[in-house]
Design a protein that fits this description.
By secondary structure, the chain is an all-alpha fold. It contains 16 helices and no strands. The longest helix has 33 residues. It is globular and about 65 Å long.
């Protein structure tokens, strides 16, 4: 098996594991286990909690003591066990504890997978910049295949989705030990604990422009998990309405939601064009307004005559998700000192996928509780319009407050 094919298999399974439950889990715990909005949001906040420290901690272990491909495999084997254990739980506290533990060992594998791939490609004298993206795209394909699998089998409404994820995790865990070896540095350069943990990047908050950027990153990060947590639950709610009960959008809601991931892969290809033509700030603003559309279209769409609006919402998700993450990462790359650049990227991820995701998941759960679960007249539309208004306020504030006058032609490395 060629090196590229080996890495394609790794990426496919890596994201298949996640896709098997991430989008459908909200429906399972909401409709089947009857958890409330805040409880549902708390499961999606676990990814933010894990992102606060686990990638950095396991990154240190992989650098110094345990080869990355072995640590990668160990994490997935542990994750498989935890997911199986979670599938037997039907009450909130034990299920939350096991899902939190499984996410704690899964989230670091996202970074470890890059480490393994970059190491293997570099040792094979291949061009990482040229050869890795076509390999990585198979991760998104794996995510989509997992979504379709749990949808078409009907597993989206029960605990079997966790079994599907666990089986993939077990296979990848074993497979990881056959991947190219990564070296460890047992005698690393002496660094302070602050440098080791990447905390030096927090000094960037002394720069007003960087502080504003990271604060807005956190606020927009609050939108990242909302549709992951509540999108399928929203679509399945139409099952109680006779005219929508047997519509495609209800019976195959996860497949409908997978259009978001398909859109994501396509919008990635347009980023160089948009960045060079409009510049980083305008592209980030496009992302923010795309989030407004994402939520607003959910608010006015339905699986019947409003299906086209839902599909449009899925399409704009690609712009909403990719444009801010990629352009934000590029902004950090081009405006920070090379000595703390890696830590600065870590801080960007912490603000968006860590703190922002935690706050957003719990806040979204509270809004869903108020306007849907505990309301005399449940209104998903009101909840989605609140999310849209939140994104709109952020976009308008960002346009006026964030000062970055870089000319598009000055953008490098894309």
């Amino acid at each position: 098996m060629s090196l590229k094919l080996r890495l394609i298999v790794m990426n496919f399974l890596q994201f298949f594991i996640w896709g098997a439950w991430l989008i459908s889990f909200g429906s399972y715990v909401g409709n089947t286990l009857h958890f409330d909005g805040v409880q549902i949001g708390s499961f999606f906040a676990t990814m933010g909690i894990a992102s606060l420290f686990m990638p950095a901690l396991l990154g240190i272990i992989a650098d110094r003591w345990v080869p990355a491909q072995k640590l990668f495999g160990i994490c997935h084997l542990l994750g498989a066990i935890l997911l199986i254990a979670a599938s037997f739980q039907a009450t909130y506290i034990p299920l939350y504890a096991l899902m939190l533990a499984s996410v704690m060992v899964y989230m670091p594998t996202l970074a470890l997978s890059y480490t393994v791939a970059y190491n293997a490609l570099s040792k094979a004298k291949m061009d990482v910049i040229k050869d890795f993206p076509p390999i990585r795209v198979w991760g998104t394909v794996g995510f989509i295949c997992a979504m379709w699998t749990v949808d078409l089998t009907g597993f989206k409404n029960n605990e079997i989705q966790l079994y599907v994820s666990a089986i993939a995790a077990f296979v990848l865990g074993i497979y990881s030990f056959m991947l190219p070896k990564c070296d460890v540095n047992k005698n690393p350069e002496s660094k302070s604990l602050v440098d080791v943990l990447g905390l030096r990047a927090f000094t960037l908050f002394k720069d007003k422009r960087m502080a504003v950027f990271f604060i807005f990153s956190m606020m927009l990060g609050a939108a990242l998990q909302i549709t992951n947590g509540f999108g399928d639950l929203f679509l399945s709610s139409f099952a109680s309405i006779p005219e929508y009960a047997h519509s495609f959008g209800v019976e195959h809601s996860v497949i409908l939601l997978s259009v978001s991931q398909i859109s994501e892969t396509l919008f990635i290809l347009t980023i160089p064009f948009f960045l060079k033509r409009f510049g980083i700030k305008k592209v980030m603003l496009m992302s923010m307004f795309a989030w407004v559309l994402r939520f607003a279209l959910f608010g006015i769409g339905n699986p019947g005559d409003g299906l086209s609006l839902l599909i449009l919402s899925m399409i704009v998700y690609g712009m909403a998700f990719d444009f801010f993450n990629i352009s934000g990462s590029l902004f950090v790359e081009q405006t920070t000192d090379s000595k703390i650049r890696a830590s600065a990227q870590g801080l960007f991820m912490l603000m968006t996928n860590g703190i922002g995701a935690i706050v957003g998941s719990y806040a979204a759960g509270a809004i869903v509780n108020h306007f849907v679960n505990n309301a005399e007249k449940p209104s998903w539309s009101t909840a989605w319009f609140i999310f849209a208004a939140y994104a709109l306020v952020i976009a308008i504030a960002f346009a006026f407050i964030f000062k970055y006058n870089q000319k598009p032609k000055e953008i490098k490395n894309i």
